[in-house]
Amino acid sequence: MLRVVIKHFWIGLIACMLLPHPVDSAEKKVDFNRDIRPILSRNCFQCHGPDSTHREADLRLDLEQGLKSKSGDESIIRPGHPEQSLLFERITSNDPDLVMPPADSGKSLKPAEIQLLKQWIEAGAPWSKHWAYLKPQATPAPEVKNQSWPVNWIDHFILSRLEQLNLQPAAEADKVTLIRRLSFDLTGLPPTSQEVDQFVKDQKPQAYEKLVDRLLASPHYGERMAMYWLDLVRFADTVGYHGDQDHHISPYRDYVIRAFNENKPFDQFTREQLAGDLLSEPTLQQKIATGYNRMLQTSHEGGVQRKEYLAIYAADRIRNFSGVWMGATMGCCQCHDHKYDPYTIKDFYSLVSFFADIDEDQHLKRGSDRIPTIREPEIFLYSDQEQKQIAEIESNIKTAEQALKKTKDEQEQKQLKQQLDQLKKTRAAIDRSALKTMITVSIQPREIRVLPRGNWLDETGPVVQPAIPEFLGTLKTDNRRLTRLDLANWLSDEDGYGLLTARVMANRFWYLFFGHGIAPVLDDFGGQGGPPHHPELLDQLALKFYQDQWDVKQMVKFIVMSRAYRQSSLETAGQRKRDPFNQMLDRQARFRLPAEMIRDNALAVSGLLVTDVGGPSVKPYQPEGYYRHLNFPKRTYVADTDERQWRRGLYVHWQRQFLHPMLKAFDAPSREECTAQRPRSNTPIAAMTLLNDPTFIEAARKFAEDVLQNGGDSDTEKIRYAFSRATSRAPEEMESEVLIALLNSNRKAYQSKPKEAVALTKAGLAKTNPELNAVELASWTEVTRALLNLNEVVTRN
Amino acid sequence: MVNFDQLQTGLNRRTFLTNSGVGLGAAALSSLLSGEKNAVAQSTSTQSLVGGLPGLPHFAPKAKRVIFLCMAGGPTHLETFDYKPKLAKMDGKPFPESYTKGQPIAQLQGKELKCQGPLTKFRKYGRNGQEISDFLPWTAKIADDICIIRSMVTEQINHDPAHTFLNTGTAISGRPSMGSWITYGLGSETEELPGFVVLTSVGGRNPQPIASRQWGTGFLPSRYQGVQFNSTGDPVNYLTNPAGVSARQQKELIETVQTLDRFRNQRVANPEIETRIAAYEMAFKMQTSVPELMDLSGESKQTMEMYGAEPGSGTYATNCLLARRLAERGSRFIHLYHRGWDHHGDLVRYMNTCCGLTDQPTWALINDLKQRGMLDETLVIWGGEFGRTPMFQGKGGAGRDHHIKGFSMWMAGGGIKGGITHGATDELGYNSVEDIVHVRDLHATMLHLLGINHQRFSVEFQGLDSRLTGVEEAHVIKNILT
Questions:
Q1: CA of A8 to nearest chain B CA: how many angstroms apart?
Q2: Which of A25-29, A412-416, A467-471 has the lowest mean pLDDT?
Q3: Is A618 part of a structural domain of the chain?
Q4: Closest residue of B to A624, CA-based?
Q5: Distance (Å, rounded) from C-alpha A311 to C-alpha A299?
Q6: Residue A119: inside a domain, yes or no?
Q7: Distance between CA atoms of A92 and A82, rounded to whole angstroms?
Q8: What pLDDT is stored for residue B395 in this prediction?
Q9: ∠ CA(A580), CA(A583), CA(A584), 5° rounding?
């Protein structure tokens, strides 16, 4: 088949040919990676795949050689001839003893899958390497008929497919939806009424781009991007296992926010986290970044065996590392060669070896049940004031010590000793309250062996050196032991994993702004993860990310500038039926906001939100006794009583074993493992949370206060004001009427029981304006509660 | 292929909507589920109100629900169900190295290992003379109802991972717990209460920490997460209306939200809104039905005394009674925790404490279920995450360390042969040697009794067909089934 186009849109080459093109042939042609490999992977590789220890009949169907080999006289596959292909014979066999996959495997092929395999063999059984291990290939942007639609080449890839299928892209979303979408997507916060007005009124062609640039320059952009990154690297404030004690790590979160805000190139971001300590003369920020290596779950349980836990930690680290940067599920290889992908158990332990120099033994020697627990090595991050105090105390100590040396007078000695004691106590007190953070310190690497079946008691496995997975090549050194820095460099090296890392990340950026990845599974680019629906587009994005020197903001901007991004998210029943997961991208996505943003949105709308960036984690209201199952030591949660109460969700204390119930109800992960994609559930528990969590009651109450003070005179005006604060649009008449009915009904209720009204207006710590009438305030609080519970208010459209 | 999106949205929506009783029209449903019509038809044909997966159960179940009595910390098998006269004879002697060499060990690392004989007496009870220790006089009365398994083994020697292993079949965090698996597969028989409920108990010695991971839903849709009930404050987090808001006002508020959402949906045609309306409906129902569940005033004095229950106390006794009430109301998996069983030292004293708090209520639960004709359809499982060493540990008086190579549990009720003992450990109570039951086998058997073939009950996660029973072989313990 002829490819339609040859045009490098972005470098301005001119289209040179356009051939008539039958609409469905593009869809009918069997593509090995898209259509065939998933079938083989799912149904055959478990027994005829990469894992050598469980391979049946010595047959590998994951390699072309194996597929086209012979079993005795018969070909497994004879290209062009399904009827002479043993594979086809076995999958279509009626004999229960012969049919593949065997009945006891619990797998079976659907008729459509058998048909695809047949078509593929008929077409000569063309084979290619798994898409994710091939370097991204440059494809010229396809020609499109509707020349006026595309903004950038993303649109060419999408529109050309739609045109082939005789489909239309969705119309552009209205401006209110656009500014809400962009504000949530780029900063995690709703736009203010003024921002909405300004954007809606701005008719200039650059208005949209101006908005994008403003949001990208906001300090909240870094917070929004950090929310996602922190899920990937499983950032949390506690150790995770057993006593789930606190550890010091919040400066790492601030490093991440700062890195996104300063638009640190992603390759450097990678290097600093994995190996900041190995850079020459690392800066403080680079040391903080190495907290990444320390964020795994640790146990401080009495009776942990050192070797066992070193093995557990090593595996935790490789699961995370491979998931975050490689989009690989290498966790499988802790015990055996991967069943579906070409990673081996030796590859796993060779990767472990890169991290063998990290000093993580300290807590195994000095386990502690206290809060926070001992997780050295850590560094102190003294504030300016603390630094000044320390300098002063230390100079006083010096003076006192010198005086002590000189004097022979017993009374004076006694006095000086007391003074010294006191000074040292004061000095120690500073350290107790000062900000600390875990860092990576490189020590003599410990010996790493392959652990057969993952068994840490088995020491018969070969010793391994740091090495990248074998099928991806080898790293050349001059007999020097490879380091974490080599590994980090390999992740961004054009001749290493660089372009593949770029593809893994490009897919995730896409997910952030379209709700789904181009490849469906964000942390499994292996055979079971499913191929991308627009492979050429994904490759282009990866190439761009790489060629732009890992410029994240530029990538984000390019995606949100596209016409595809600006489409309406309204969906017809036909679209939903034809393409429920929107793989054709003929519309935008609508989905419930992530947990943190639901909190941030309510606080922002109410005016309570404190927009400070960074700092130690904060503790919002939480149901009493929620930590009662924690022990070693037992603890009581003390909610913050100051401004910290109203900070953004990403700063909430992340207790791995008992994540704040509000965050949990809205699918925030415990961060025990890498989370590349959160579920988006819709449960009764979440409904109760949004209805009754004191944070939302308090927000509703402050929101009501604002409505009473600034919403205008009449009820209708006030409803209009409140409604547009919550949704950025004016209410329709019916909506307004329903809310007024709710208001009046509550007025009636509260007039007869003013004490109840007072009770509602007292929710939370924020001060109530004493001038306001309690019945009115309570009645309006019910209205604003209703608004904060609307689907539209917690949905990104 | 079921990918993450489909699992999270498609199934979630389908299982929720078909069964939440919100009366969606068939047309709405089919448009929403695109191509899943058949699956829906199948699932509605099953018995349960809040349905599970199409095609489940695989075969007629013996048990409708599970009550899992988890004795967290690892109760000693050597002072409960596994009497070892040889160990008594060797009391104080060095423990034979042939057993312990190269074996995992917890707090006794590097210590001298000595035999510790049984710290109590055993007697025989019931038709078949089940051996039960003097610590458990009430359990002794149900000797004919329970099947003692003396040959348990597990793979994790520290509490947290061992619990995770017992509950999810792996020590890796982030996998679904058995209660989530089961409610995901079978749904539940109530739409007003959660299908999977967790009740933790107060009382006893310094309690084991228990992570919410133990009732986490892992990669399954969030609604199958275990819901934790609290004995004080809100019975379920955020269940109570805000101060100053009456039930009537709350109802009106919810109805307003639903009206506005429905109205908006005429403009935007978003099926997720229907799901959300249903979720609010169910939330409101829960706000009524949970307090009703927790209100024990309707229980007879006799029943209260039988359990030793006191409303609002959060004791194991009260939780056993709540477990029965949840079972009556259709919850599918009820997970009780008593957290005092980590007896490294002073074992006798702490066994007296823990058995004193749990023995009678456990008996009462079995007895009550039996009286109400519910035991036959309820699978009750008793046990902890591991057992304890036959070797002495002496953190203040004789005690025992963690032990994973042999320990005891019991099962009773739906489909279980009562009055028998299955499997055995060696003469020192160290290794399970006869009819060994791995945690995986326990899971396979539990699923079997619920009508599920564990091999055919999988969900794809990270490319793997993940099962509760994992990738290794697991066997249904046929000998203990009726």
A1: 34
A2: A25-29
A3: no
A4: B233
A5: 13
A6: yes
A7: 11
A8: 77
A9: 110
Instruction: With cut-offs at 50, 70 and 90, classify the pLDDT of residue B271.
Output: confident
Residue with tokens 């249904």: B476
pTM to 2 decimal places: 0.88
> A627 CB contacts (<8 Å, ≥6 apart)?
A635, A636, A637, A655, A658
Angle between helix axes B37-44 and B26-33 (nearest 10 degrees) is: 130
Tell whether B400 lies on the interface with A, counting CB pairs under 8 A. no
Would you place residue A571 in the very low, low, confident or very high pLDDT band (cuts 50, 70, 90)? very high
Q: How far is CA A237 from the centre of its chain?
A: 17
Q: Is the dihedral of CA B89, B95, B98, B102 positive or negative?
A: positive
Quote the domain boundaries for residue A87.
31-125
Whether residue B25 lies within 8 A of chain A, CB to CB, comes out as no
Structure confidence at residue A28 as a pLDDT band (50, 70, 90)? low
Q: Between chains, do B272 and A791 touch, taking CB under 8 Å as contact?
A: yes
Extract the runs of DSSP E, i.e. beta strands, from B58-153: 65-71, 122-125, 130-133, 146-153
Q: Return the pLDDT at A607.
A: 97
B242–A749: do the CB atoms touch at under 8 Å? no
Q: Is the pLDDT at A721 greater than 80, yes or no?
A: yes
pLDDT at position B305? 97
Interface residue B458 vs chain A (CB under 8 A): yes
Q: How many percent of chain B have pLDDT more than 70? A: 90
Question: Measuring CA to CA, how many Å separate A440 from each of A257, A379, A460, B394?
Answer: 20, 10, 30, 38
Q: Which of A516, A527, A571 is closest, CB to CB, to B5? A: A516
Q: What pLDDT was estimated at residue A235?
A: 98
Per DSSP bridges, beta strands B146-153 and B407-413 are: antiparallel
**Where a domain ends, among A95, A125, A155?**
A125
Give the type of residue at A659.
Answer: L
Q: Residue A30 has what DSSP assignment?
A: -
Domain boundary, last residue among A104, A125, A146: A125
Query: Which residue in the block uniquely carries the two structure tokens 């169907």?
Result: A61
Whether B15 shows a pLDDT value over 80: the answer reads: no
Check CB contact under 8 Å for A629 and B209.
Answer: yes
DSSP H or E stretch at residue A665: helix A661-665
Looking at residue B438, the DSSP 8-state letter turns out to be E
For the stretch A92-130, pLDDT in tens is: 988 888 899 988 777 888 898 999 999 999 999 999 888
For the ranges A5-14, A160-169, A213-222, A238-247, the lowest mean pLDDT is seen at A5-14
In this predicted structure, what is the pLDDT of residue B5? 52
Rounded distance, CA B66 to CA B331, Å? Answer: 9
The answer to the question of residue A474 being in a domain is no
Contact B241/A at CB under 8 A: yes
How far apart are alpha carbons A588 and A178 in whole angstroms?
Answer: 11
Contact map slice: B 30-89 vs A, CB within 8 A: 31-32, 34-35
Distance CA A58, CA A418 (A): 79
Distance from CA of A18 to the nearest CA of B (A): 36
Does A479 map to a domain?
no
Q: Do A670 and B273 touch (CB under 8 A)?
A: no
CB B378 within 8 A of CB B65: yes
Residues in chain A closer than 8 A to B259 (CB atoms):
738
pLDDT at res. A282: 97
Residues pairing with B187 in the sheet: B51
Which candidate from B102, B212, B272 shows the least CB-CB separation from A457?
B102
What's the total number of domains in chain A? 3
Q: Is B88 exposed, middle or buried (0-12, 13-18, 19+ CB in 10 A)?
A: middle
In B, minimum Cα distance to A634 occurs at: B209
Q: Is B252 on the interface with A (CB under 8 A)?
A: yes
Rounded CA gap, B152 and A797, in Å? 53
> In this structure, are residues A404 and A416 in contact, taking their beta carbons and an 8 Å threshold?
yes
Residue B474, amino acid: A
Residue A6 predicted with pLDDT over 70 = no
